[in-house]
Amino acid sequence: MEEHSAASGLKRRRKYRNICFGVLGVLIIIILLIVILAFTVFKPKRPVTTIDSVSLSNLKFSVDLPRLQVLLNASLDVDLSIKNPNKVGFKYTNSAAQLNYRGQQVGEVSIPAGKISADETIPMNFRLTVMADRLISDSKFFSDVSGGELRLNAFAKVSGKVNVLNLFKIGVVSSTSCDFTVFLYNSSVGEQDCKYKTKL
User: Fold this and answer.
1) pLDDT digits (tens, 9 = 90+) for 12-53
2) Residue 88 has what DSSP assignment?
3) CB-based burial label for 193 (10 Å; 0-12, 13-18, 19+)
4) 124 forms bridges with which residues in the sheet?
5) DSSP character at residue 161
6) pLDDT in tens, 127-176
7) In the structure, what pLDDT confidence band is assigned to residue 65 with cuts at 50, 70 and 90?
8) Do 134 and 106 form a contact (C-beta atoms < 8 A)?
9) What is the pLDDT of residue 14?
10) Nearest one of 47, 73, 78 to 60, comparing CA atoms
11) In the chain, which ranges are E strands?
12) Interior angle at CA 150, CA 97 and CA 54, nearest 5
């Protein structure tokens, strides 16, 4: 009788041990699967911010020779797009696009926070008003105006996080810098030379 109860106790312990090993094996497989997916299919890719076009929407320009003054009022329409190549959403914080002249900021517009779904590209349109006082304060401005051309730079930077399987949050910063020329006499914008940079 004692042998029978000892044998059944041993069987029971083996059964519990086998169940524990089975559950542990399933957990290890699930963890391995999550890790493999996180570093292959859901591996974070770099969102790309692109300045698609810059156009002059308003330009009022005149020279007051008796007072030696240049009067300038200008606005630029900037079409921007952000592409999320990830298989998960990209959530970005409040960001900004700015206009620069010879390294000095002469215009800025905010990019409100938002979210981009997986494999989605969202277009954004902004109007940048040129801060004429900052532009005119540059000593080389008058020589550029007399030549009829202004070399400008549009810079946009977007930072946010990619959330992989609700387990890993990876910070991403995407920026674009475009150099272009504004032709003052016919109010047009020349070709753009853009550089893109992304940090994970």
Assistant:
1) 788 888 888 888 888 888 878 767 666 666 566 667 777 777
2) S
3) exposed
4) 80
5) E
6) 877 877 777 777 888 788 788 888 888 888 888 887 766 667 778 888 88
7) low
8) yes
9) 82
10) 73
11) 48-64, 69-84, 90-92, 95-101, 104-111, 114-116, 120-129, 149-164, 168-183, 188-189, 193-199
12) 40
Q: What's the pTM value of the predicted model, to 2 decimals?
A: 0.65
- CA–CA gap between residue 66 and residue 132 (Å, rounded): 20
Q: Amino acid letter at 4?
A: H
Sequence-ordered list of residues with C-beta below 8 angstroms from that of 71, at least 6 positions apart, any chain: 60, 61, 62, 63, 64, 132
**Token pair for residue 66?**
């008796």
Q: Are 192 and 54 in contact (CB under 8 A)?
A: yes
Per residue in 99-133, pLDDT tens? Answer: 898 888 888 888 888 888 888 888 888 887 787 77
Residues constituting the chain: 200
CA distance 200 to 198: 7
